[in-house]
Here is the input.
Amino acid sequence: MKPRDYQLDAYWMPFTANRQFKAAPRMFVAAKDMHYVTDDGRKVLDGTSGLWCVNAGHSRPKIVEAVKKQVETMDYSPAFQMGHPSAFRVAERLAKMAPGDIDHVFYCNSGSEAVDTALKIALAYHRARGEGQRNVLVGRERGYHGAGFGGISVGGIPANRKAFGSLLPRVDHLAHTHNIEENAFSRGQPAWGAHLADELETRIIPLHDASNIAAVIVEPMAGSTGVLIPPKGYLERLRQICDKHGLLLIFDEVITGFGRVGPCFAADAVGVVPDMITIAKGITNGMVPMGAVLVRRGIYDAVVNAAPPDMVELFHGYTYSGHPLATAAAEASLDTFEEEGLFKRAQELAPYFEQAMHSLREMPHVIDIRNMGLVAGIELESKPGKPAERAFKTFLKCYEKGLLIRTTGDIIALSPPLIVSKAQIDELVGILGDALREVGRD
Ligand SMILES: Cc1ncc(COP(=O)(O)O)c(C=O)c1O
Here is the structure.
């Protein structure tokens, strides 16, 4: 290993055990296609698409070229009261790709901003229609909607909330859908659990009154909390209840967008059209930060037409909304997905991936394996008194052996780039199986 030309102390790392990391750092210095390269020159197979974002694999030439060309041509263009062509081209393309009559696009820079934006649009929409009292927001236990105050308020991961005070007022949460007793080792969408959506109508709506509720936000497949696959019929039922009571339904597709669970959006996979979709990550293949909210026509029309002509209609946006480097990366990413047929590829590969993942069933301490598209969650029984230890040890062992996995608590999440080959899926399973066996002996 070469001596480092930097100190580790000053950087306060996000969602990281800083002291543990700095005692034994893990550094990537290069990436290409399915692999990272570490600072000691080892290749590491990417089992997680970075952080669920590098859907077409790393440093893809077309996207690299597009970003290089853009930075040489125009580095930045003001986001407010000015435009640049690429931002409009990307929006048109996303509008065509989105399901149903979702055909407007609001840009931001991350998934967290996309969530805050969608929640604000929901409130602004109801107000524009003269129902400004509709301001209760409904999330779900175990939901992850980023790290902003809006996102952690509707989110349901206790550790992400507990240090940060009272959060947004007027928020309620549905129960999560995870149930190992009923659904362990389900392949694809589990059969049990559609009825859990009824809580919206049997508890939450009577408690707050529908006339006060603005929106329901859920991840169609909850990724960061540990891969919770939607029970068959659950999202359909949420849609029906929202329609019946005039509530907006927001799908947070920051992870599931762009082929992760098969078609472009999870909404397509389950045949449910929400009112808004939040996206980020895969839209630029992880190369440049970008997020967006995809919005149904009626919502855009209601907000925009409620303002006097020539006036700003929605007092919201970011300096870097639709940044030229981000839109250039997005155009080239969408081209790459399309030219290489990556969403179809992911769908075709999903049964092989499923079979490979479920082959780990007999490994020590595995209590559940679940999957959808090219995502899998492997849940381990927690060591008494030491939650998360087994999964984290597995993560470290995999890294030593040349595989990047992700863990949340005692759940291992896998989400390889959509270009993964069958041989690489086998390699992933081989390394992970060895790591699980070794950790199982501890
Ligand atoms: C469903 C979902 N929403 C929002 C976010 C937040 O995205 P970001 O980290 O880009 O702010 C994430 C990140 O993993 C996510 O999985």
The first strand starts at residue 28 and ends at 32. Residues 110-112, 115, 144-146, 219, 223-224, 252, 254-255, 280 surround pyridoxal-5'-phosphate (CB under 6 Å). The CA atoms of residues 130 and 231 lie 36 Å apart.
